[in-house]
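Quick log. Single chain, no ligands specified.
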Amino acid sequence: MPDTRIPSFVRHRTRLTEGQQHAWDQWWSEYGGEVAETDRLDVTPPTVLEIGSGNGEATALMAAAAPSVHHVAVEVYEPGLAHLLIRLRAAELANLRLLRGDAVDLLERAVPESSLEGIRIFFPDPWPKRRHHKRRLVQPDFVALAASRLRPGGWLHLATDWAHYADQMLAVCEACPALTRAPESDPWYPRPDSRPLTKFEQRAVREGRIVRDLLYTA
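-> predicted structure:
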């Protein structure tokens, strides 16, 4: 049966800078891999999956702050992955794995049920135009899938600077029977110190957008 799911991303032709290309050539084979070629993800506990690591600024900091946790970053944007490779090598991180491709495909095919310590989705593409809202990642089917991959007590942490998307995330997560909102939430969860304040977020705040976090447990 053909896959009729609407992807939450668009693949663009990208060009790497000289430094990014060097990092890719030197280290991708050691630290990276393709989602399409991953039959079963190593989820040695505790493993945290980050969907959409962007340029890797927050990812590298979170991996460095939790060296006993296995971190897996999934991203489709090659320059972002290359930048993360540079950060990974500079910080000498041994607990971070990079994957290029569709995170939904990874969850469906290669991540066992009840296996992940946590899933992070920070600032996913908001697809702000109404006609594109169907492309947003955080939809009922996706949240049910994500919840099924969390171990009992595992967590799903979301963050966005788009108010409408935050409301959608809240509604979808509240409707998922497998998830329970963290008690500290009202309904938004206070930004924890474990989520670094990146340049991207600082710019959003300067431009008047409120950043909202959501935290749920399985």
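The chain has one domain: 18-217.
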